[in-house]
């Protein structure tokens, strides 16, 4: 993934936190038929030795797991908040007209080798954890144990687990770092006033970048 020195993010704790928040990603492998991508939710696990693992699952009908059986190299891509940047938000445009549209976003890439997991106990724990993460804030959270055991057993046998030990991370936090302070502030105000929740999230991320820059 291309990133400039001003936008590159390589702090593992920041990248892991972003993956945990985004959760849904694209898992890309080279299959016998060429590049193959599957979009799935993934859990991120931080191991006691400092290593990081991603885990997910696919339907048994999805051929990706057969490719993963051989320990195929894989790329997991996570796209965070993103938004179009209107050049009219830049005060300098009114002075010299030198402004063009751009896009602000965050993205994380994780590289590693895939392995498949067909152990029912592992799959049950994986699905339980994935469910608990997403049901935690509900007034009446659904749990894996709410499903009839015979139904759950059939569902578990219809999927294959995937696990990837991350060998290398890439992160790009493109949030207007190259713009002059007044242009960044203008973009933040423009995004914050948008009706798009995602645009508002980008504004908050840009504020964080400004705050960190001021603290240095």
Throw out a few tags for this protein:
216 residues; alpha+beta; seven-stranded antiparallel sheet; 7 helices
What does this structure look like?
The protein has 216 residues and is of the alpha+beta class. Helix content is 35%, strand content 34%. The chain has 7 helices and 7 strands; from the N terminus they run H-E-E-E-E-H-E-H-E-H-H-E-H-H. It has helices at residues 12-22, 64-68, 93-96, 120-135, 149-156, 181-192, 197-215; strands at residues 24-31, 34-41, 43-46, 52-59, 73-85, 102-117, 159-174. Helix 6 (181-192) runs antiparallel to helix 7 (197-215). The longest helix has 19 residues, at 197-215.
Number of strands: 7
Distance between the termini: 27 Å
Report the major sheet.
Answer: 7 strands, antiparallel
Shape designation: elongated
The whole-angstrom Rg is: 21 Å
Please render the helix and strand layout as text.
Layout: H1 12-22, E1 24-31, E2 34-41, E3 43-46, E4 52-59, H2 64-68, E5 73-85, H3 93-96, E6 102-117, H4 120-135, H5 149-156, E7 159-174, H6 181-192, H7 197-215
Antiparallel strand pairs: 1-2, 1-5, 3-4, 4-7, 5-6, 6-7
Short description:
By secondary structure, the protein is α+β, with helices and mostly antiparallel strands. The protein has helices at about 10-20, 65-70, 95, 120-135, 150-155, 180-190, 195-215, and strands spanning about 25-30, 35-40, 45, 50-60, 75-85, 100-115, 160-175.
């Amino acid at each position: 993934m291309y990133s400039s020195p001003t936008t590159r993010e390589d702090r593992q704790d920041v990248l892991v936190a972003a993956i945990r928040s985004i959760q849904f990603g694209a898992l890309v492998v080279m299959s016998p038929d060429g590049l193959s991508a599957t979009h799935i939710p993934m859990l991120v696990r931080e191991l006691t030795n400092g290593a990081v693992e991603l885990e997910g699952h696919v339907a048994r009908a999805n051929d990706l797991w057969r490719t993963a059986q051989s320990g195929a190299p894989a790329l997991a891509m996570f796209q965070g908040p993103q938004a179009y940047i209107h050049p009219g938000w830049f005060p300098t445009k009114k002075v010299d007209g030198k402004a063009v549209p751009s896009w602000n976003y965050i993205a994380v890439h994780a590289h590693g080798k895939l392995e498949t997991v067909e152990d029912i106990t592992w799959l049950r724990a994986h699905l339980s954890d994935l469910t608990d993460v997403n049901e935690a804030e509900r007034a009446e959270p659904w749990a894996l144990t709410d499903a009839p055991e015979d139904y759950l057993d059939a569902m578990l046998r219809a999927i294959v687990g995937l696990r990837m030990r991350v060998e290398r991370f890439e992160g790009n936090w493109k949030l207007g770092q190259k713009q002059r302070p007044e242009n960044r502030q203008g973009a933040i105000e423009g995004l914050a006033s948008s009706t798009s929740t995602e645009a508002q999230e980008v504004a908050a991320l840009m504020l964080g970048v400004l705050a960190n820059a001021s603290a240095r």
